[in-house]
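Lecture 7 notes. Example A: sequence first, then its structure tokens.
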Amino acid sequence: MRTQQILCPTDFSETASHAISYAIEMANFYNVGICLLHVVDKPFGDKYTRVLAVTPDELIERMEREAADKMQQFIDSFDIYFPFESKICHGHPVEKILATEKNINAGMIVMASHGRTGLEHFLNANTAEEVANKAKCPVLIVK
């Protein structure tokens, strides 16, 4: 951990922003970098109509462009300067987070939890929990 980059998956939510503050603090302490990762989930249709009006490749390209814009706005929203490496990919979030962990040889993953409980937790896949169970490095889940 002390010499390896911190992987910080983000969905651009307020909770993800909170998790990144923890990642920045740890990165400063250990003098390591941070890799911000956003995974564009598999497209299933236009965000307004949910009808696929363009080819899947065009939709993925548009979603990745929008994600890149959001990523830059997200990085710009921090009060302090910190050099982030950023990655955007598409696919299943857990698979892509774990693949990125392996590819960059992450020393730690810091990510947000959506804090679901009860029936909502049972019915919705919990990305943070699955990453924590399958990751090879330590995982800090921030609420």
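Example B, a different protein, same format:
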Amino acid sequence: MMDYNKMPLLEEDISENLVIPNYVKIYDIIFNLIVEGVIKAGDVVPSENKLANYWKVSRGTVRMAMRKLEEDGYINKTQGKQAVVSTHALQYKDGFQWLFNPCIENCVDTIDEIKISAQYQPAVSTLLMSWGIKSREI
């Protein structure tokens, strides 16, 4: 098992406008440790209780991060047993924070086109015609 006391602490949010949930920060810390090879395939991840105490957050916060890591295939969890880093966890993937902060710096992509499409059901037109109502194209 890795020494969880050497894990990074949770960083404070940089600005008031950008608030990243703690479970996202925890996900990214563990994710980065896996990608950097600090935690290797087959290593046991510390328990949710130990991690919650270390980061001074609720166990539910750690559980959410661990559940997302499991869904993304980075760890394997079995009820009543400790979480283990997956053997195929080295598939590179972006961290989780991009969902909350997609454009901190170097944002140059502008929205220059918006496409909207709509469909109607021909059966509605037929039904209206059977009632004597003429349908119009929009």
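Note on Example B: The first strand starts at residue 75 and ends at 76. The two ends are 64 Å apart (CA to CA).
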